[in-house]
Design brief:
The chain is an all-beta fold. It has no helices and eleven strands. Strand 4 and strand 5 form a beta hairpin.
Length: 130
């Protein structure tokens, strides 16, 4: 079965950095779009960043542009989220999402919608102290 396992979360001071990883199994990774979403306490899940199956196209929420970088290593079936200049408002549980593209071609705008992702990890907590 499909498994997504996130790691790399933790407690960091404002201005610091963290690198999240999401290891995928049970799917053909090179045919899978990947994304990071986050959910702060009491709020809905929101889009953070996404990357197309071949790594060519990346997408970012305005709130993280210039600070976060999404990347992937298809040889390791892993997607990463490098987070720099962290702010207290980045505090949330970060989730990795995956959607296979074997039979579906998705529009660019669809990368931002959590409803288009078929699989999710268990999440990793990121806490940024002021």
């Amino acid at each position: 079965q499909v498994q997504l396992v996130e790691s790399g979360g933790g407690l960091v001071q404002a201005g610091g950095s963290l690198r999240l990883s999401c290891a995928a199994s049970g799917l053909t990774f090179s045919w899978t779009d990947m994304a990071w979403f986050r959910q702060a306490s009491g709020k809905e899940r929101e889009f953070v960043a996404a990357i197309s199956n071949n790594g060519v196209n990346t997408y970012y929420a305005d709130s993280v542009k210039g600070r976060f970088t999404i990347s992937r290593d298809n040889a390791k079936n892993t997607v990463y989220l490098q987070m720099n200049s962290l702010k207290p408002e980045d505090t949330a549980i970060f989730y990795c999402g995956a959607r296979p593209t074997y039979t579906t071609t998705y529009t660019s705008s669809s990368f931002y919608s959590p409803a288009t992702y078929n699989y999710w990890g268990q999440g990793t907590q990121v806490t940024v102290s002021s």
